[in-house]
Amino acid sequence: MSRFVVLLFVTLAVLYTAAYAKKLVCDMPNEEYHCGSACQTTCATLGQPCPIKNIRCNDACYCKSGYARNRRGICIPVQNCSKRRHAVPLLRLDSILY
C-alpha cells in the first residue's frame, strides 16, 4: 500500500511539473533555445574550449551559429567582436625597477 502511495505521489509530482513548468523563451535577437554547453559563446572567449565538463546539457538561450555575446550579453555577429580579445598585455622587462 505504501509503495502505491509513493508511486502515485511521484507520478503526480512529475505530471504537475511537466504541465506547469515555465517554458524558457529566448526573445533577444539572434538567440535560440537549445540544450548546450555550460559555457556561452562570448567575444571574450571565442576559439577557447569550455573548461566545464557537463554530466547533462544545460537548457538555456544561446547565440545562433556565427554570433557571440558581447560584454552587455547581446548576441552580435562574431566579425563584430573586438579584435583586442586575443591581445595579451606584455610585461616589459626594462620597465621593472630593481
From TrEMBL:
<protein>
    <submittedName>
        <fullName>Inducible metalloproteinase inhibitor protein</fullName>
    </submittedName>
</protein>
<keyword id="KW-1015">Disulfide bond</keyword>
<dbReference type="Pfam" id="PF01826">
    <property type="entry name" value="TIL"/>
</dbReference>
<keyword id="KW-0964">Secreted</keyword>
<feature type="signal peptide">
    <location>
        <begin position="1"/>
        <end position="21"/>
    </location>
</feature>
<feature type="domain" description="TIL">
    <location>
        <begin position="26"/>
        <end position="81"/>
    </location>
</feature>
<keyword id="KW-0722">Serine protease inhibitor</keyword>
<dbReference type="GO" id="GO:0004867">
    <property type="term" value="F:serine-type endopeptidase inhibitor activity"/>
</dbReference>
<keyword id="KW-0732">Signal</keyword>
<keyword id="KW-0646">Protease inhibitor</keyword>
<dbReference type="InterPro" id="IPR002919">
    <property type="entry name" value="TIL_dom"/>
</dbReference>
<dbReference type="InterPro" id="IPR036084">
    <property type="entry name" value="Ser_inhib-like_sf"/>
</dbReference>
<comment type="similarity">
    <text>Belongs to the serine protease inhibitor-like (TIL domain-containing) family.</text>
</comment>
<dbReference type="GO" id="GO:0005576">
    <property type="term" value="C:extracellular region"/>
</dbReference>
